[in-house]
Amino acid sequence: MTEVTIQAKDGGSFTGYLALPAGGKGPGMVVIQEIFGVNDVMRGLCDQYAAQGYVALCPDLFWRQEPGIQISDKTDAEWQKAFQLYQGFNEAKGVEDLIATLDFLRGHEAVTGKIGSVGYCLGGKLAYLMATRSDADANVSYYGVGIDGALGEATAIDKPLLMHMAGKDKFVPPEAQEKIKATLSDNPLVTIHAYPDQDHAFARTDGIHWDPEAAKAANERTAAFFSRYLKS
């Protein structure tokens, strides 16, 4: 569990939190942050994926604005800061940084075989964009915000994509969810699981909308998905 430096494709560099599995080697996993930076939650997720046998790396996607952001969802001030960073975030550059992270893992001595991505909230949309813009072997999106505005890229999906959608997500209204389902339903590589009674970030441990049962179901589906597509 260490900090690494990743070279950006357009110059400069950024850091990421790297967690290694007990065996020292395994498939790779790009873990994509929420709007709160590479905080305790994201580092904990990396550790969990490492415990499942993956070389897990969460890059700092806000480095172009303010490197090293680590805030929580516990105070109004932190939420305001998070939304400020989100509004100033360059999505295209963020995807480029994720692809650079993917390339970093491909060249890492601990990575054997395939590499996937998994993202939450902001990262949920970026995981979808990794499915459309990168050569990651499998991708998982947790309650991605704004995917309905990027469905023009859906035809580019040629690797397995798993999506978890919260039915009562205040950031993704029902009409947006229906548009996503209608557009992606014909692609056999895309699997969408809906959680009708859940709100946004239901899988964020100890978050305001955390639901242990729904989180357990989603996480078990994710584990089975990555085991199938990254470990085989």
Automatic annotation (TrEMBL):
Residues 14-230 form the Dienelactone hydrolase domain. Pfam families: DLH. One of its GO terms (molecular function) is hydrolase activity. Keywords: Hydrolase. PANTHER family: ALPHA_BETA-HYDROLASES SUPERFAMILY PROTEIN, CARBOXYMETHYLENEBUTENOLIDASE-RELATED. This is Dienelactone hydrolase family protein. It comes from Aerophototrophica crusticola.
